[in-house]
Amino acid sequence: MGIAGRLSTFSLAEVLQILDRGCKTGLLTVRVSLEKRREQPYYIWFRQGQIVAAAEQLDHKELLSVLIRRGWLDYDTASLYSQVTRLDRPLGSLLKEEGVLQIDHLKSLFQAQVPRRLGGLFKFKDGEFKFDSDSPLPKLEMTGFSMPALEAALLGLRTHGKTAVLISDLPKTHSILSQAIRTRYSIKLNFLEQRVWNLANGILSVAEIAARLHQPMDVIQQVSFRLIAVGLVEEVPIMAPSAQTSMTWNGTEGDDLGGAALEVAGLSSWDSGESTVSRSFLKTLIDFLRSKL
Amino acid sequence: MEVMRLVITGPVGAGKSTFIHTVSEIPVVSTDRTATDKTAELKKTTTVALDFGKFTFEDSMTLYLYGTPGQSRFDFMWDLLIRRAHAYILLVAAHRPEAFREARQIVTFMNQRVNIPMMIGVTHIDCEGAWTMEDVQLAIVGTGNLTPVIAVNANEKASVTQSLVALLEHYLQSSVPC
Ligand SMILES: Nc1nc2c(ncn2[C@@H]2O[C@H](COP(=O)(O)OP(=O)(O)OP(=O)(O)O)[C@@H](O)[C@H]2O)c(=O)[nH]1
Ligand SMILES: [Mg+2]
C-alpha cells in the first residue's frame, strides 16, 4: 500500500512535502469530513511532484464547465472536447494552440483550480488521504500550468495557518530551531520566513528569534510552524527536566527497576567517549552473524 | 575484551523490545510496565527505562544492545544511552504514519548529540495500511540521504540478524579507517 492516513495525525503540508520530495506522479484523494457525517472528496493530480490539476469530481468535466460558465467556450464545442477520450496534451495547452484561449485565461483558471482550492483544504482538521500512483493524468482537467507541491503547502499555510493550525501544534517558545539536514531545496520564502530560516541555527529558541527580529511571539511561532511543516526546519527536542525523569529512574510502581537495570546493563559504571570499534571486531562479528543466517 | 554498543530506538510500539529479545543470548533485561493513557490504546505494556540484551562471540567480543523507552520524553536515559553508543537503529512501524513525526524528532535529538552511523529499520511492513519502504524513507529522512533503510520484522531472528549485518557493514564503510 502507498501513502495514506488521516489528516488529524499527518498534516496536509506533510503529505504535500512527501509527494514533492518523492517527485511523485499520480492522484491524491482527500476526503474531508463535513457536518452530519457527510464527506467531501478532493482530487489533486501530481506530475513529478508538481500539482497539475485539482477537481471535486472524477468525471473530467469540471474545467470544461468553468470554461462555459466564463463564456470562453460554447456548450457544443465543449461537449465535442469532452468526447475526446485520448488527449495527448492538457486541454488548456490545446485551446491555447487553437487560439481559443490566451495565456492569461489559463493562468486565472489554474489559480482558481489549484492554489485557491488547495488553500481551502488547509482549513479542515480531519479527513482521510490516499495517494494512488497508478492513476492516469486527467488531460481534460489540466490547464498546462503546474506548481510544486511544497509551494502549495507553504501558500496554504500562509493564508489559512492562523485559523487552521492548532495552538498545541505550534512549536513551543523555548524550542530550539535548526535547519533540516535533508534540505536541498529552492523554494521561494517570503521575507520573514527567510529571516527565521537564517536564524534556525540549532542554538536560538523560537522566543530568541522573535526577540532578534522584533516580532510578536505568535507571528514567529506561525512562521516556524510553516517552515517545520514543509520540512525546511526541525524543532529540536530538548531534554526533559530531571525532576520528571527521576520517576522513570525509580520505575513507575515504586520499585527500583531503572537503577537495577542500569546496574545489570553495566551502564552505571560506563565512562563515555570510547573510541570506534576495530575493523577486526566488525569483520568477526559480521561473519558470526552471517553464519547464523 | 572488546565491546560494541548499539542503541535501538524509535517511536512507541515500533518493535524495539522485540528486536532485542529476538537476538539476545541472555534473557533481556526489560523494564516494560503496563501502558497508560494514549499508549494503552496501542499496546498492553511499554518500556519505561530501557531494554538490554547482548551476545558474546569469539570468547572476548561482545555486542550490547540497548533499547530506548517507548514514550520519547527525551530524558537523561536517552542522553546516557546515545552518548555511549557506537551506532544506532531507528525502528519505525510502516503502518503508523502518525508516528513518523516523532521518528524525525528522535533523529534530530540524536544528531544533536552524536555523529555516529545510523540505519532505519522499517517494521510492520506486513501489516495493513503499511507504507512502502521508499515512502517511509521519504517521510523520515527525505531524498539524497545516505542512511540505509531496510525492512525488518522484529519477531524473526533471520530478519533481525540481517539488519544487524547491514548496520555493521554501514558502520564499517563510514567510520573505520583502513
Ligand atoms: N506484524 C508485525 N509485528 C511486529 C513487527 N515488529 C514488531 N512487531 C510486534 O509489534 C509489537 C510491539 O513491539 P515492542 O517490541 O513491544 O515495541 P517497542 O518498540 O518496544 O514498544 P515501546 O517499548 O512501547 O516503545 C509486538 O507485538 C511485536 O511482536 C513486524 O515487523 N510485523
Ligand atoms: Mg519496548
- Helix amount of chain B: 25-40%
The backbone outline of chain B, from C-alpha atoms, is globular
**Which percent range describes the beta-strand content of chain B?**
25-35%
Total number of β-strand segments of chain B? Answer: 7
CATH architecture field of chain B: 3-Layer(aba) Sandwich
Task: Characterize the main sheet of chain A.
Answer: 6 strands, antiparallel
Q: What is the strand and helix layout of this fold?
A:
The complex is a heterodimer of chains A (293) and B (178).
Chain A lengths: L3 E3 L5 H10 L4 E8 L5 E9 L2 E6 L6 H8 L5 H9 L7 H7 L5 H11 L1 H7 L5 E6 L14 E2 H16 L11 E4 L11 H9 L1 E5 H7 L4 H13 L3 E4 L5 H9 L6 H8 L14 H13 L2
Antiparallel strand pairs in A: 1-5, 2-3, 2-5, 3-4, 4-6, 7-8, 7-9
Helix pairs in contact in A: 1-7, 2-3, 5-6, 6-7, 7-10, 8-10, 9-10
Chain B lengths: L1 E8 L6 H8 L5 E6 L2 H6 L2 E13 L3 E7 L8 H8 L3 E7 L6 H14 L4 E6 L9 H9 L7 E3 L5 H19 L3
Parallel strand pairs in B: 1-4, 1-5, 5-6, 6-7
Antiparallel strand pairs in B: 2-3, 3-4
Helix pairs in contact in B: 4-5
The site of magnesium ion has 7 residues of chain B, from helix 1 and strand 3.
Task: Give an overview in words.
The complex is a heterodimer of chains A (293) and B (178). By secondary structure, chain A is α+β, with helices and mostly antiparallel strands. Chain A folds into three domains: 2-148, no CATH class; 165-236, Arc Repressor Mutant, subunit A, CATH 1.10.10; 243-292, no CATH class. Chain A is globular, with a radius of gyration of 26 Å. Mean pLDDT of chain A is 85; it is low at 243-258. In chain A, the strands form two sheets. A six-stranded antiparallel sheet of chain A has the order 1-5-2-3-4-6. Chain A has a three-stranded antiparallel sheet with strand order 8-7-9. Chain A contains 13 helices and nine strands. Chain B has a single domain, classed as 3-Layer(aba) Sandwich (Rossmann fold). Chain B contains six helices and seven strands, in the order βαβαββαβαβαβα. Chain B has helices spanning 16-23, 37-42, 76-83, 100-113, 133-141, 157-175; strands at residues 2-9, 29-34, 45-57, 61-67, 87-93, 118-123, 149-151. A seven-stranded mixed sheet of chain B has the order 2-3-4-1-5-6-7, sandwiched between helices. The two termini of chain B are 21 Å apart. At the A-B interface, strand 1, helix 1, strand 9, helix 11 and helix 12 of A face strand 2, strand 3, strand 4, helix 3 and helix 4 of B. The complex binds guanosine-5'-triphosphate (GTP) and magnesium ion.
